[in-house]
């Protein structure tokens, strides 16, 4: 069997480890021939491939980024899986000698995987996203690294904030789900955590900041990029659309900071962590999780378990149907937010 490995969407720490796990299991144990498509679906459309064997994946597990590259190039024209578009994918697979796909990506990528599976095209999914918002798995690799980077930023901002009696506002990634903000904020002992799922008024935010000042401390506020104050529209400072046609987010910290300062009289500074969260070497947890999911995906292909994704349940990596993974966005439950909110201020 000849399997095409393809990475799509944003990069995520651990992708190289996942490729290595899948290749070593697939080539060395199951006897597959495996090839990688460069820059996601762009490589598939252009026939830009590289052979994947033990030598090709040597030493890549601790490396950040992804050796194959990734992109937001769609698999189908206009992103629509018409019968004609699916027939074109099958024809291209035949031209390239590809029997099946192993798709590494987040919600968008796994949604495409489900479309391919519904059309009878053999595919197995490997879940990655720093946002941890993909269903069917407890955690996605890349999330732990992003949280660790954000938690270190909190530790550093806290010391300078306390020195100058400033309120520090740290913006982390999280368009629709606030998992990074929640976990990093709790790990760093932030006095306030703002998530897309649970709007709070500017008045309430300022009350918490003043409460922190009244007990002799300086506030550290963690805000996810998708947060918007209660009753207000999306807060953005960058015009335009992203690769999926969605409004660009980012800059909510830069909007909140002056409003907090104006209402409280406390000097407030904003820091946008941005793509720093995606870069650098993955944590040990992410390397292990990525390797295990890559191995499970290769085993699934060997068993003919198409239309599945390798998800983490407890301490076990198990195959779940793709529809379970992409059926609904995994957002922060109200109970988890309330657990943290009781300590705000």
TrEMBL record:
Entry keywords, A to Z: ATP-binding, Cytoplasm, Glycolysis, Kinase, Magnesium, Metal-binding, Nucleotide-binding, Transferase
Residue ranges occupied by any Phosphofructokinase domain in the UniProt entry: 2-300
Matching InterPro entries: ATP_PFK, ATP_PFK_prok-type, Phosphofructokinase_CS, Phosphofructokinase_dom, Phosphofructokinase_III, PKF_sf
Binding-site list for substrate: 129-131, 166, 173-175, 225, 269, 275-278
Stored Pfam families: PFK (PF00365)
Residues the record marks as active site: 131
Pathway recorded for this protein: Carbohydrate degradation; glycolysis; D-glyceraldehyde 3-phosphate and glycerone phosphate from D-glucose: step 3/4
Function: Catalyzes the phosphorylation of D-fructose 6-phosphate to fructose 1,6-bisphosphate by ATP, the first committing step of glycolysis.
Subunit structure: Homodimer or homotetramer.
Protein's name according to its UniProt entry: ATP-dependent 6-phosphofructokinase
Species of provenance: Leucobacter chromiireducens subsp. chromiireducens
Lineage: Bacteria, Bacillati, Actinomycetota, Actinomycetes, Micrococcales
């Amino acid at each position: 069997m000849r399997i095409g490995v393809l990475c799509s969407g944003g990069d995520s720490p651990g992708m190289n480890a996942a490729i290595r796990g899948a290749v070593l299991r697939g080539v060395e144990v199951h006897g597959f021939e495996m090839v990688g498509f460069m820059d996601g679906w762009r490589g598939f459309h252009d026939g830009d491939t590289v052979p994947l064997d033990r030598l090709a994946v040597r030493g890549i597990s601790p490396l950040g980024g992804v050796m194959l590259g990734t992109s937001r190039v769609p698999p189908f024209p206009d992103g629509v899986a018409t019968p004609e578009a699916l027939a074109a994918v099958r024809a291209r697979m035949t031209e390239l000698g590809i029997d099946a796909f192993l798709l590494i990506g987040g919600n968008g990528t796994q949604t495409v995987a489900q479309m391919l599976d519904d059309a009878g095209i053999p595919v197995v999914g490997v879940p990655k996203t720093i946002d941890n918002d993909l269903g069917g798995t407890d955690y996605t690799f890349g999330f732990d690294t992003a949280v660790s980077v954000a938690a270190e930023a909190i530790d550093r901002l806290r010391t300078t904030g306390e020195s100058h009696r400033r309120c520090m506002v740290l913006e982390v990634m999280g368009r629709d789900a606030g998992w990074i903000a929640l976990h990093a904020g709790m790990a760093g002992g932030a006095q306030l955590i703002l998530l897309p799922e649970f709007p709070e008024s500017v008045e309430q935010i300022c009350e918490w900041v003043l409460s922190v000042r009244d007990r002799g401390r300086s506030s550290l506020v963690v805000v996810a990029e998708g947060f918007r104050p209660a009753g207000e529209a999306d807060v953005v400072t960058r015009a335009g659309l992203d690769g999926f046609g969605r409004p660009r987010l980012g800059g909510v910290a830069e909007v909140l900071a002056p409003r907090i300062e104006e209402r409280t009289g406390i000097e407030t500074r904003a820091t946008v962590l941005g793509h720093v969260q995606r870069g650098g070497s993955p944590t040990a947890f992410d390397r292990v999780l990525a390797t295990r999911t890559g191995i499970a995906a290769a085993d699934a292909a060997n068993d003919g378990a198409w239309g599945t994704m390798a998800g983490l349940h407890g301490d076990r990596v198990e195959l779940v149907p793709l529809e379970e993974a992409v059926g609904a966005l995994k957002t922060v439950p109200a109970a988890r937010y309330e657990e943290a909110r009781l300590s705000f201020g």
